[in-house]
């Protein structure tokens, strides 16, 4: 570090800021720099040509050649000799106050500045070490004053200015380090175009920075807003306005012709002076570049053509490519006449960028009746509105309407704010966590008790039904035993009768049948007592058919007779239809009883397992063992006058039991 280096220390007193009466002019301490013109200055070039010559004579920022120079700015990659990989990062210079150390890592190079990475040894974070070539030594007092102003500018969307000093033929200043380059480079990285959400987020941040600068008294005008001078911290999407070197306090109209032609408002070219609205014009061009990815007035070959178009009110060609009507509306307003242009704050509040306000509950009395609410307009603190709300007497709708009428709230948020207040009121009504837990406990308890009651009721019904079943079963048992007793009595009676008859006079079977009592007994011994025509089995419509069946039954069934033939005959003989016959046959076949022989082989106990009704079993047994009886029955039906065959079997039980 050369001993010529002068470090300038600054007082925190910024009274000079307010008192600033002359325009900031860096010509004092570095060149090439802006040229200040005053309307009283006779040297003002009046024609474009004069201006061009004038500007080219002075290598100023305003030089129309500047744009072309801009295009030739080497990228860090192009500066191979100076690019140093981070692996070999090392300290190459120390600031006069020894607080900052410059590293050999080049961050970038512009038309005027070369920027290196540096470290703030006091705070322990990285900063940017900006160097500018300076032709002449600055006046210390002026430098101190200027830098004092730059240091006083503190806003999250403006690159912080930390320190500055004048070195050997160079002016050095330390600023906040931005990690992700300029907005212009970043737009290209988001090819084809950044989406609307990103454009809005960037715009909001740029405008907040501008609103802050323009909100100073007197306003600070940046004068070189463009995407190259807006920097990005990619990790958080933070956007900050940089290159404050051209910023100026506005005291009355400005006349310094400075900036980048494509971004310069028409009034900057004129002699009438300009104000902070030139930054809004430049912001409009930035928005145009964000929305189209194109540099404004890219169709112009040189700065003179741009000047001509701007002066004639011809807008950049890429304006036609803006698709979104809201974005287009904002750009058009920014590019309109100075008087019509919205301020940074107004654009922020424009529906395109406005963020819906929050409504927060600041305080409430213990009964949650008297509330203090606040509408917070994000990024627009001035508009935050605090108000009281009585839950018992006020409604959200009324309160919001009143505030709109009194112009305390903008009407466009009426619905949103009303909804938010109602949400807060609902939340207040909501039970606390312990109340909620108690409610859950109670509802579980209620449910449990309902289920228990239901269980008791069902158990009672079940007991009742069981009792009924037992009762009915007992009745069944008693009926059954009564039936058995009746059956036994009946058998005894028949036997006694027969014995009696035999004792009295031995009868032939024929006689026996003729006796009315015996006839009656015999008929009850038959499987079915009816002899009406309707009881004739289905399929026995003619006497021939009946004859055939009788003779068939009278024949002994051979052992190999198919069981279904036997069963069908049996069903017919017992006045059952063919469907019954099929059912019986199926049950027998399921037990592997395929022939009459199989049936004959059955032991008495096996009969019970066949699964047939008692009626069917008796019919089959009778048919098998006492087919003659069945034949008699049939004969009686067919030929009622002819005598039935003799009784050879013990009588079956009454069919009522079957
Ligand atoms: N604060 C910073 N943090 C990180 N990099 C920076 C910072 N300031 C500048 N740079 C890098 O240095 C490059 C040159 O800076 P800048 O564009 O401000 O220089 P300039 O000479 O003022 O350029 P212009 O030609 O736009 O006037 C930038 O493109 C950027 O890559």
From TrEMBL:
Residues of the Protein kinase domain: 101-353
Organism domain of life: Eukaryota
Region Disordered, annotated ranges: 1-22, 635-658
UniProt KW Nucleus keyword: no
SMART domains: S_TKc
Keyword S-adenosyl-L-methionine annotated: no
GO MF: ATP binding; protein kinase activity
Coiled-coil region(s): 448-503
UniProt keywords, alphabetically: Coiled coil
Composition-biased stretches (Pro residues): 641-658
Family matches, as PANTHER family: SERINE/THREONINE-PROTEIN KINASE WNK WITH NO LYSINE -RELATED
Protein name: Protein kinase domain-containing protein
